[in-house]
Amino acid sequence: MNPMPSIPQQVIEDACEWAIMHGVAFRQSDNTARHCPFSLAPMSIEREVFEHLLKVTPLITKLINNVSEDHDFLQSSLSDMAKADPFFGRLMELHQQAHGSADDCLNPARQPLLLMRTDFMDDRQHGAKVIEFNGIAAGMAPFGQRATEFHSFMQNQWPNVYNHWLEDPSATPAENQGLTQLAYGIANAARQVKADFNEQDKPVFLMVVQKNEDNVYDQHLLEVELQKQGIRTVRRTFEQLSCQLSSGDNQRLLLKDVGAVDVVYLRAGYQYSDYWAPELNESVCCHTLSQTRLFMEQHHVAMNATISQQLATSKTMQMLLTMMPASEYARWGLTLEEAELVKSVLADMKPITSEAIEWFNTQADKQEWVLKNQGEGGGHCVFGDDISEQLSQLKPEEYNAWALMQRLYPHERDVPTIAVRDTQQTLVTDLVSEVGLFTAYFKGKPVTELDGYAGYLIRSKPASENEGGIHSGKGILDSLVLID
């Protein structure tokens, strides 16, 4: 990235103040706010490509929802991975506690609310392909909608700057209701649970958060939107919940000093540290707090993510679904045509075996692959020549925690872009983007006004950077315009 002070500082300050004022920020350790990094003009995508993604993403959600409720399949297909990855091993134990073995077939009382973000990259050669499914802590829909609103502000307020950095003057903004539709879907689920108990008061939404979380504004934007829709919102960590939850009549989940809970939304729980409380001094890591999660599932409450959903959106499940013939998706209610549509966006994946390692080291084009473990968020991918090094360090019993995936090379933006980070502008000449589409399903049915779709999130980064997270990498917030 080259620093190039080409835009008047007044415009940059105006943009940064808009971002802070609209909650597009991270909390700093001293309780001040820092605006999210963003681009001054949106990325363009062909309308046809975007419409294909709009059609296929709800089908992916339908598939994942049905896989996540197929408990025998989860247990049998993920058991090897669970032995290789201690965290997923713990999740599988919890899943078994919740659902019993194949003979028991217990059904925990929780009602599955699948709030999912499916991340794609539009590969130059192969078209748009899935990078990963996010079924737990799949946040930033509010920031997605705000980024679209921000670019609309730039277009109206600073048209010369906006048009100068726009790739194609004929492009039209892609509508984005990420925040309002996600809130609509959650409110919908909350009211259904409330109705199950014939209660009249305000539904309650519980967000489970990490201690000292810095990504709070994205979360608060969702809460404010839910409050507008008549929902009461509360935030707690697993640690707080471990001594504040109890059971009411008919498997009602009760929260101390609040009352009945209708929706539980986990923004934590995808890594060991979320369940670790040093003062509990446990012999088995994270037992108490992970049992708290299980306790919630044993109640009649709309829940995202269920343990099942987290397992069904794992990298290993993505690999299994990718390797499976489309006809097998019929088991989860997809027609062959729907299954083929889903398959059209899945990128090649390979399990790690001694044969695969041998093939990779002797025959593969190493730049065409990325090595992934089961981790969520940034920092879990290995690229190019580093893959052989990582593979040589793995013990055979760890193989099942990893997978090779076809590396995606998205289109670089034709026009350079100005990225703004910490009120400083930089010129980026090789920007590439990741498109995340949100969906919301409750008890297997779409619950947004857009048939399950709920807006998008665009994160862009220089092509030379591997880590594209807004929060943890070199990513910047962005939005979409469509070209015909």
TrEMBL record:
A Pfam family it matches: GSH_synth_ATP
PANTHER family referenced in this protein's UniProt entry, alphabetically: GLUTATHIONE SYNTHETASE
EC number from the UniProt entry: 6.3.2.3
Family: Belongs to the eukaryotic GSH synthase family.
Top-level class of the enzyme under EC nomenclature: ligase
UniProt KW keywords: ATP-binding, Glutathione biosynthesis, Ligase, Magnesium, Metal-binding, Nucleotide-binding
GO cellular component: cytosol
Residue intervals of the Glutathione synthase substrate-binding domain: 204-312
Cofactor(s) this protein cannot do without: Mg(2+)
Protein name: glutathione synthase
Pathway the protein acts in: Sulfur metabolism; glutathione biosynthesis; glutathione from L-cysteine and L-glutamate: step 2/2
Species of provenance: Vibrio coralliirubri
Molecular-function GO terms, alphabetical: ATP binding; glutathione binding; glutathione synthase activity; metal ion binding
